[in-house]
Amino acid sequence: MALAPLPPPFPVTSRSNRRDRHFRLAPATSPRRRLVNLPTPSAAGREVDAFTKYSGYLFELGASEAESPTEYDISKIASVYRKKPLIVLRRLFQIGTTFGRWFALRYLDKVRERSDLMFEVRAAELRDILVQLGPAYIKIAQAISSRPDLIPPSYLDELSLLQDRIAPFSTEEAFNTIEKELGLPIEELFSEISPYPVAAASLGQVYQARLRSGGQVVAVKVQRPGVQAAISLDILILRYLAGLIRRAGKFNTDLQAVVDEWASSLFR
């Protein structure tokens, strides 16, 4: 787990633990926020977010396989998935059929001369597809949404929602992750913790809590389950497709190098 500070002037409170790759602890920016009594994990909700529901099969990877390198290394990623060809094929099929259906609907709209009527509907559908496919595609959409010169306003509006409106994953799963990686029950770690995340993003979500030892109010940041496996696999696929597109379109730009640069930034 990478420990990263919240904005200054708050110092970081961290635990030196090699296993803590999905969990980080930092002082909260809003100590006056009202905290609630500590809930048990069983009462914390069993909601399933769209990514888990649609791409949760990626979680079947073993712990050592799902844990991608902390630094971007395409050769190491390829070596992991070379042993999992069925997972790669399943993901390729899922991505192809998902986007294929959307492009087919766009084509039918054009044939039926109702493209303008369905424009906003298709934009919303595209946003849902990106959320289902997971963090790598959300990150791409977030980058594109800052370029109004590249996409139409309706798509810009929908993709902009991906900046701060990502559905959280199960709180029960988040609490289980905290307990597993810190090696203690939630009630021994915190005297209070919010029963639902106070913020959620494509890579993880944040809870506010009060440390049982010392009473300090902290932000507890938990990484989404399966996110490392999903990002690594999708980068591998995107890099492969970039090579095909470059050869087919005879582009002068090294598209694979573009993917590598973006992936390095994402891993950091």
UniProtKB/TrEMBL annotation:
**How far does the signal peptide extend, from start to end residue?**
none
The UniProt entry's sequence similarity note says:
Belongs to the protein kinase superfamily. ADCK protein kinase family.
List the protein's name.
ABC1 atypical kinase-like domain-containing protein
InterPro entries under this entry? ABC1_dom, Kinase-like_dom_sf, UbiB_kinase
Coiled-coil spans in chain: none
Residues of the ABC1 atypical kinase-like domain: 162-267
Q: Which Pfam families match?
A: ABC1 (PF03109)
SUPFAM superfamilies listed in its UniProt record: Protein kinase-like (PK-like) (SSF56112)
